[in-house]
Amino acid sequence: MKKLMSIMLTLTVVAFMASCSEDDNGTDPNTNEEKTYYPMTNGDTWIYNYVGLDQSEQPKDGTETSDTVTITGAEMYMGQEATIFEMSSSDGSSRTTHMYKDGKKLFASVMYILPGGDDLGVFGDLPIFPDTDTWVLLADPDQSKWDLLSIPIEDYSLDYSGVTITVDGDFSYSVEKGSKAEWVIGGSKTNVQEYKVIYKFDGTFSLAWPIEKVITLTNHYWFAEGIGLVKRQLDPETFDILSFPIEIDGNKSEIDSYNVTEE
């Protein structure tokens, strides 16, 4: 289920525009044409190869799946006319997510930008997930970084390796616009925009006394002009809590094939 959240997350963090300036996004400064990095036409389909990653970013045996995502229509969802994305995996699991556009901005259900993976380690045991669904801003070409939400963690008892640790702090979600590059996809050069979702804990872990700690996880997303998502990677991380070593493995999804309508 956590892996599915990660896959759906890759379908929601979106780079829309490539028309502002050559320094900002590498396009011809003499044109104002908007170029879509995420097609959203009914029937569009993407197939991704998913795999877990160890601490050396090498594939983990037995974690491979093939995941198909298809736009199946639109419906009213949380007060908005939203596009429906259906995801099915070769492991038999499935999930639905929603998105909508407002001018140059893209909004998505917060339930599908949750940190996901095969092993979130201690993060998966903390109350870092929202209680209710809501819309969050996931793409805005006029910003380079923005906050999504922050979840307070107060006097939470975490059992780890037989030891009870008290956790206090905040777990935040934010988005950063990354670099733009030209990739060769299907034999053709294509502009690709990177976006990053940052998950951050800032607080204390207490046993006999509180120890301040800042922990971050980073999910990278690369969107190709006219195609949509072509690669996503959650970086593996290693850190310690009160001398306990913690490893959080990563994962990635890469495009295998797609069938989209030109917009």
Largest sheet: 12 strands, antiparallel
Biggest sheet strand line-up? 6-5-4-3-2-1-14-11-10-9-8-7
- Specify the overall morphology: globular
Given the structure, what is the number of helices? Answer: 2
The helix content is: under 10%
User: Total number of β-strand segments?
Assistant: 14
Structural class: mainly beta
Strand content: over 45%
Assembly state: single chain
Unreliable segments (pLDDT under 50, ≥5 consecutive)?
A: 4-33
Q: Tell me the series of helices and strands, N- to C-terminal.
A: HHEEEEEEEEEEEEEE
Mean pLDDT over the residues: 83
Distance between the termini: 33 Å
What radius of gyration results from the CA coordinates? 19 Å
Structure description:
The protein has 263 residues and is mainly beta. The chain is built from 2 helices and 14 strands. The strands form 2 sheets. It has a 12-stranded antiparallel sheet with strand order 6-5-4-3-2-1-14-11-10-9-8-7. A two-stranded antiparallel sheet has the order 12-13. The protein starts with a helix and ends with a strand.
Secondary-structure map:
Blueprint: H1 2-10, H2 22-25, E1 45-53, E2 65-77, E3 80-89, E4 94-102, E5 105-109, E6 135-139, E7 145-160, E8 163-185, E9 188-206, E10 210-224, E11 228-234, E12 237-241, E13 244-248, E14 250-259
Antiparallel strand pairs: 1-2, 1-14, 2-3, 3-4, 4-5, 5-6, 7-8, 8-9, 9-10, 10-11, 11-14, 12-13
